[in-house]
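name: query_chain
kind: protein
chains: 1
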Amino acid sequence: MASANDLKSTYSFIPVFQADAELAKCGANALPLFAVGLQLGIEDMASFATEALTDHPEDKKADIIYIDESEGVACIAQGFVAKEWGRMEAKANKANDLNTAVAWLFGTPLEDVPKKIKQQARLLRDGLQSKSIRKVVIAYAHNALESQNVSNALGAVKNLLQGLAISKNVDVEVVELGLRKIEALYLASKGIIQIIDKVELLSSEAISTQTSNNWNAYTFPLNGAALHDLYAKHGDALFSANLRDFLGARNTSGNVNNRIKETVEKYPEKFYVLNNGITHCCPV
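structure:
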């Protein structure tokens, strides 16, 4: 039976996770908190644990509830840590439990919501109503590998949340935080490029080049289908070591991401002129 120590050479986040004395106080909730914190880009894990951990007999299957109106994000998470690390898949029933959490936090009349999570339910609903919450993340964190069974269960949770009137016009993201995903998030947090295999790109001649002691940079047009295929293969790892992740598209005139989104949807023929900047760096 594999332990966390047995997998240290495979997953570089494990020693860092084990060294966090504050998280260690959270017992079985330590790994889920660590994983969700990485997913949300949390820097102060100790404060995050104090604020977000709700594990309690009356939590209605929501181990973690986190609301950040300044960033426009809310997260509801369930976690499970098996004695054996690195199993091929985690129990899907824990992902199914998130259906219960969503139903209580978003759909049950507030007067019937248990006192332990009533304040969070009120904040969630108020934030969605005022549109200060623009994204809801549903997460299941565990110490096994990611699997299709869990993915299917989380898909059902997403459908439930999207079907509630209160969640209209809100981005809903579901994510399984198994060992591989946690490792990818940890590496990304350290600015480490995760895609190290050779990538062939179909392009015309380079428009410009820049050279340094350790790299060459080429600027050229890239077919959108090729970019789509790269993302389909590599997912978010394609953006590892990027200076910023997607920051949301709040509907204000000055929001850069909203303007980019508007160009794609309404003026695709102007996209190249108005937005460009993918740089492919090749070691010399």
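note: Confidence is low (pLDDT under 50) at residues 246-255.
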